[in-house]
Amino acid sequence: MEQLKQKIREHGSVLSEQVLKVDAFLNHQVDPPLMQAIGREFARRFGGQGIDKVLTLEASGIAPALMTALELGVPLVFARKHRSLTLTDNLLTARVYSFTKQVESTVAVSASHLAAGERVLIVDDFLANGQAALGLAAIVRQAGAQLVGIGIVIEKSFQSGRGALEEQGYRVESLARIASLAGGQVSFLE
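^ that's the sequence the OP posted. Answer follows.
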């Protein structure tokens, strides 16, 4: 998706050969027209799959996932990283390791929001080692729902995430695939 790649070139900051900072438009400050275009693109790529729900992980995945759900005309569900007084019973949970934060946390979704037989699309902001997507896929399985695919805004293709997901048989669609962050420069696949 050229619009996204251009935004990464103009406003992304390479912090190391492993870390790309995109807080100017994706995961701190959000660019609504870009998120709308991302939602349209995911809806185009996954349209016709009979999707019932879009699932993401709080917080950075919410903006692109919400726009995707809007374009598909379905509800958005997001897994919570922190327990609350209202999220206590009948939970679907998974342990997820965050590459960026270097911490493992338990994420949860109320079982009342994902039902057996529903067709679910996962949308997330980044794919590095695939742990977030694998955790969300585990939640989909716990619900007895079917995972239709995984939409990723930015994939770090030099890390193992895509391979881990495809090894499980999941369809992965990434809008911007980064080949390298070496030398402080972003280079894209394709």
